[in-house]
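Q: what sequence does this backbone want?
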């Protein structure tokens, strides 16, 4: 805990058997109270490794629900466990768990309710091996998003994110896609609700075992990002009234 706030780290996992242990070992358990791994029907030994290294909360999807569907289970579980601060970390070791403390302290001390680990700040992306075409696409999409959403973030596409429970309870993340565009839809909801977003420089690593999506899925993702940003813009103008920006139902 930090300042009496319970910290839960969630790991949305898919075929992470080779990198899960090294990721888990770097989690700062002096402040992290719970770790939740949600396995999205992996084809490798991810679940077996999770049990071997001692992860207490391991949830297995009966069918593959997609990246967004995995996160929905992650956040639902973290909130049920009483998490005050929820940090989403990919178990493929692309992002360093050593930043969990910094991200958590920013939220626990009421600096920001949302903190992103940015690969773009500090030029860490290209140094870490991000393909040039991916870097250019990231920068281009981010520019368009900042214009349409009226923000000045360095990137919207990082998979390293920390949230206060108040943020997660204020948005209807279940209204979002089960695919990769979930991340952008969630950020759009958060900004639409008026929550300020902080960023911290995050080095990243690109290597064979790290997760990535192919060109066709990247194209679908990019189109989804543009659609989300335009929807945000039109909802702000009152032209659209999308369910995504309404208050979540109380269960």
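A:
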């Amino acid at each position: 805990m930090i300042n009496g706030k319970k910290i839960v780290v969630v790991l949305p996992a898919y075929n992470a058997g080779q990198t899960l242990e090294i990721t888990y070992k770097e989690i700062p358990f002096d402040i992290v109270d719970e770790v939740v791994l949600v396995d999205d029907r992996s084809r490798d030994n991810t679940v077996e490794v999770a049990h071997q290294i001692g992860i207490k909360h391991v949830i297995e999807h009966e069918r593959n629900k997609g990246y967004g569907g995995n996160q929905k289970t992650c956040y639902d579980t973290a909130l049920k466990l009483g998490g005050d601060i929820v940090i989403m970390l990919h178990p493929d070791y692309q992002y360093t768990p050593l930043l969990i403390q910094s991200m958590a302290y920013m939220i626990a001390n009421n600096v920001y309710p949302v903190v992103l680990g940015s690969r773009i700040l500090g030029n860490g992306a290209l140094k870490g091996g991000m393909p040039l075409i991916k870097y250019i696409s990231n920068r281009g999409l981010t520019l368009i998003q900042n214009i349409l959403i009226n923000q000045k973030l360095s990137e919207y596409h990082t998979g390293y994110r920390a949230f206060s429970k108040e943020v997660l309870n204020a948005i209807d993340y279940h209204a979002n896609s089960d695919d990769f565009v979930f991340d952008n839809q969630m950020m759009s909801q958060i900004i639409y609700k008026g929550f300020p977003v902080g960023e911290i420089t995050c080095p990243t690593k690109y290597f064979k075992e790290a997760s990535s999506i192919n060109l066709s899925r990247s194209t679908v993702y990019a189109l989804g990002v543009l659609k989300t940003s335009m929807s945000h813009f039109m909802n702000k103008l009152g032209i659209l009234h999308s369910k995504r920006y309404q208050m979540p139902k109380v269960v």
